[in-house]
Amino acid sequence: MSFWFNLVKDVFLRMLQLLSFSRRKISNSLSIYIKTNTGSTLSVELDPKWDIKNLKEIVAPQMGIAPEDIKIIFAGKELHNSIIIEECDLGQQSILHAVRTPHKIVNKTRNTDLIEESISETSDLNDSSGSKPMNETLMDLSLDESNLENLSLKEQQENRAHFYVYCSAPCKNVTAGKLRVKCARCGSGAVTVDRDPQCWPDVLQPRRITVNCESDFCPVTSSMHKDETESQVSYAHFYFKCAKHPSLGENDEAVPLYLVKPNLRNIPCLACTDIRETVLVFPCEAGHVTCLDCFREYCTVRLHERRFEFDEEYYTLPCPAGCPNSYIREVHHFHLLGVEQYERYQRFSTEEHVLRAGGILCPRPDCGMGIIPPSIEDDRECRRIQCIGGCGYVFCRICLQGYHVGECESQMSDASTSVFSSNYYSVDPLKANQATWDEASKKTIQTSTKPCPKCRTPTERDGGCMHMVCTRAGCGYHWCWVCQTEWTRDCMGNHWFG
Amino acid sequence: MAALPRRIIKETQRLMQEPVPGISAVPDDTNARYFHVIVTGPEDSPFEGGLFKLELFLPEDYPMSAPKVRFITKIYHPNIDRLGRICLDILKDKWSPALQIRTVLLSIQALLSAPNPDDPLANDVAELWKVNESEAIRNAKEWTRRYAMDN
Ligand SMILES: [Zn+2]
Ligand SMILES: [Zn+2]
Ligand SMILES: [Zn+2]
Ligand SMILES: [Zn+2]
Ligand SMILES: [Zn+2]
Ligand SMILES: [Zn+2]
Ligand SMILES: [Zn+2]
Ligand SMILES: [Zn+2]
To answer: Where is the Ubiquitin-like domain (chain A) (predicted)?
Structure first.
């Protein structure tokens, strides 16, 4: 009996929806996709002025269920019926998730008392479930957990999270970003987060926030075992989308530039002292701030002088005030410099990495490709190096001239031996067997020059001062003749002049 | 010519309104990035009583790069070479855009009060300062009288 009643009710509702749907005039349409938990995708045109209830009415007939049996999930939140679509920060071609509720609840609930409760709850119009979208609730994220603040309501309003991302394609620019979330286990976006992220580690590090995954294909939900074990928990995987272009699908992600923030506290720029709307906050304890223009200039000047530094494997810069532990570790921030300078940054970075790994740079002018040759101990006869991935130039490792058979040509070549591969030189038996006056000339070179500790270019000691500056174009490393490490204040105090 | 950055305007205003005691810094009439600086020799230093002229120039990429400062008046000091160049870490590797013209001038004044022969630029001066400080101080006083007092 109730079956027939439900069927009739269903048909009636669907007709009603179709009627109301056709009556609506779409003023400013937003075309989005709706993914259902059964795996199908619907394409829908929406009016941004509609609310979630309207949306459910449109989707219901296509899913073959009643609108009140549908949950709409977006960016980690189940959206409440009264939410207006334009409040949700949906872009064109965004994906919403529509999930059948009663079915899911029966399947997912681990407690029998709760089953009845939820069923009875979903049988009335279910207006109490759901919440505001993430963009409405999310606060500006602090850099770490230590300084989570208690903010007043007004401050919370002003403190809405703003994200900046680097959109590698198609925008190729720094743009506004949107935070999105999916199930770390199955990759489905049909998840609701158990809490909002509060700090960047919540977003960037895995396994910090749990989610309720609604996908039928998720190993957690489809599992028959309902024990709450570690393996049964799903975690949030947060990612970002560019807000400037229509979504290009689920894999269209952008890199968050988490040091770029709206300047809510009106802090003047460290360099120009202007108070700007958007700033870059360095990860130092003081949280020094520069405006984006000054950041660009700071980086460009340092890049020009090749004064970026290594912080572990990152080729980067510290806070311009010289604070300890202030290196930028998300090097995508250097995209702020623009395409041309970023390319230069990448080139320098690659070169410096190669040199640091004991490699050499292709000697051909305008190439400079970094090459890591096989260790000479492994293959001592092999002096033939090809610039693979660069210009293709084939050259002699020893003299850096075009590749040749037999001994390298000139006396000069011996000098350049130590220039570019002094580390191989000393263990090269070919060289060790050379004429004695070569030995002697090597000694003179050794005593008047020492290799730059950074790039191994021999630098001649000039004017009695122990403060050396590497002469290799693009290195310019300041080092100490005595210590053969970076030039420091201690060197200056202890043995500047020997 | 590019507009003068607001930071330079602000710093100049502040230097005019609240000058650093014992130091005057006035921008050039034709070039707002070029400052004529006069530092009075600090009391109880061999430079006492002297007026030392310096030039200070804010490069194009200031405050990313340090100001360029040079003594114009001859001075006998281990950290200042024959061309008036100053050996001061904040003018080189320790420069930070958080520092200002004011900080630089104060540091130079401090350098006159406390020469550091272990951190020398003028090698021979530093040498003498180390082995025979009283003679070095006598020289410094003599140079101050000769070059920094008659104007
Ligand atoms: Zn984009
Ligand atoms: Zn899942
Ligand atoms: Zn600035
Ligand atoms: Zn700092
Ligand atoms: Zn090449
Ligand atoms: Zn060769
Ligand atoms: Zn070098
Ligand atoms: Zn040293």
So the answer is: 30-99
**pLDDT, greater one: A154 or B61:** B61
Residues B102/B20, Cβ–Cβ less than 8 Å: yes
Who surrounds ion ligand 4 at CB < 5 A?
A 282, 284, 286, 288, 319, 321, 323, 326
Using an 8 Å CB-CB cutoff, list chain A residues near B65. Answer: 301
Q: What is the ipTM of this complex?
A: 0.74
Contacts of residue A16, defined as CB under 8 A and 6 or more positions apart, other chains included, come to none
pLDDT average, residue stretch B87-116:
90
Average pLDDT over residues A47-57: 89
* CA A318 vs CA A207, A474, B96, B105: distances in Å: 29, 20, 11, 26
Residues near A138 by beta carbon (within 8 Å), at least 6 away in sequence: A160, A161, A179, A196, A197
Per-residue confidence (pLDDT) for residue A108, from 0 to 100: 44
Listed by start position, the domains of chain B span: 6-147
pLDDT exceeds cutoff 80 at A189:
yes
Best probe of the B interface among A323, A465, A496, by most B CBs < 10 A, is A496
Report the residue from A272, A322, A464 with minimal CB separation from B7.
Answer: A272
Model pLDDT, residue A112: 46
Domains of chain A: 20-100 (3.10.20.90), 160-221+231-261 (no CATH), 268-374+383-396 (no CATH), 447-495 (2.20.25.20)
**B6-147 belongs to CATH 3.90.70.10:** no
Average confidence (pLDDT) over B67-86: 87
pLDDT in tens, B9-21: 999 999 999 998 9
